Amino acid sequence: MAKGLDVGTMNIISGRQDDSDTVFVQQRNSFVEIEYSDMAEQMLSRSDVLHIRKDDKVYVVGDDALNFANIFKEETRRPMQQGILSNDEKSAIPMIKLIIEQVAGEPDYSGETIHFSTPADPIDSDLSTLYHQKTCESFLSDMGYDPEPINEGMAVIYSELADNNFTGLGVSFGAGMTNVCLAYYAVPVMTFSIARGGDWIDEQAAQATGKPVDKVTSIKEDDFELDFRTDVGGVEGALAIYYENLLDYVIENVAREVDEEDVEEGLDVPVVVTGGTASPSGFEELFEDHLKEATLPFSVSGVTRADDPLYSVARGALVAARSEEDDAPERSEPVSRSSSGEDEEEEEAAAAEEN
Predict the structure, then answer these.
(1) Burial readout 268-294 (b: 16 or more C-beta within 10 A, e: otherwise)
(2) What confidence score (pLDDT) does residue 232 get?
(3) What percent of the chain lies above the pLDDT cut of 70?
(4) Which of 41, 211, 222, 292 has its CA 20 to 30 A from that of 189?
């Protein structure tokens, strides 16, 4: 069975097919450092908290990291920044390797197909995604998978636009980046990313209100709504302001890139938005309102949000992986010498006795 993997700045999520159901496994892509003690490590182990001990430190990794950060008034540390591996975090490689191993699990067989998401190079930054992509590819190869990168925006198309012949504009609003893909019958016409996402919103809102970034993140993830009825002086008001600013920035870059790619005029394009940053209620309505004000060579038939925006990229990567697996020659199961070899020898011996 093939698998899909969303390697996101905020969350790492795998998807696999189990009969008619898609099963997702998720871990927050972050960690926090605490002082080591025998008692602390015993309690973490008993509670099944994902952690690593190194010298006199213990690193709590994944979903529990944010809880520990809030309790101990510490900032979580992140293996990834702006959609790729952080070059400022010395522990980035071992931490993200551990999370990927936990989320993807062992392959069902050697060479199992896995498609993993990778962002496009951002058009508003000098960042390169190549090192990040090749490092993740190496992790998965070492685990026994046959890994294949898939553009994050294209994964949205595969996940959400099957009923529209994989034609439309897919926008993945992640934590580190926002990825955009315009596709026509599953062929990408335009792909790019911008180096702003949910982290940028959180950082700007934290700076404006004087609150810790992790506190702002918790408020945003706790039933925050883009209804613009909140007090502008509070955290939710600041979040709303920077959400709107991000949407304007994304649309401005979409318009510019469409002009440069010379996209055919007159197309009627469905738009689908996804990613953890697109989760707040009212997001798609706000995005559609701003799109109507933009000058684009195509018309927008409507904006929809994925039913499960957090899992959309992992689902799209899984769709691509299963499609490739179906097209590949039939895989021969590995045969152990202990079973088939002995059986063949017994059959030969029996035949000799009969003769």
Answers:
(1) ebbbbbbbbbbbbeebbebbbebbeee
(2) 67
(3) 88
(4) 292
What would the CATH number be for the domain defined by 3-29+78-327?
Answer: 3.30.420.40
Cβ proximity of 298 and 331 under 8 Å: no
Could you identify the residue written with the tokens 């190194």?
A: 54
CA-angle at 339, arms to 334 and 343, nearest 5°: 125
Mean pLDDT of 160-183: 95
Compute the mean pLDDT over every residue in the chain, rounded to the nearest whole number.
87
Backbone phi, psi, residue 151, to 5°: -60, 135
Give the pLDDT score at 352. 46
| Cβ(93)–Cβ(52) below 8 Å | no
Residues 249/250/255/257 CA torsion (nearest 10 deg): 110
> Where do runs of H (alpha helix) occur along 143-191?
152-160
pLDDT per position as a tens digit, 89-125: 988 998 999 999 999 999 999 999 999 999 999 999 9
Residue 66 to residue 52: CA distance in whole angstroms: 16
Residues in the chain: 355
Residue whose tokens read 């925050």: 224
Summarize pLDDT for 52-91 with one digit per residue, the tens. Answer: 777 778 888 888 888 787 777 778 899 999 899 999 998 8
Res 32: pLDDT:
86
- The edge-to-edge listing of strands for the beta sheet with 51-54 is 31-35, 57-61, 51-54
Determine the Cα–Cα distance for residues 229 and 140; give it in Å rounded to an integer: 46
Report angle CA 81, 83, 85 to the nearest 5 degrees: 55
Specify the 3-state DSSP secondary structure of 1.
Answer: coil
Looking from the CA of 80 toward its CB, the CA atoms found within 13 Å total: 31
Name the token pair of 49.
């908290």
H helices then E strands: how many in the chain? 11, 15
The owner of tokens 């994902």 is 50
Type of residue numbered 44: L
Radius of gyration of the chain measured on its C-alpha atoms = 23
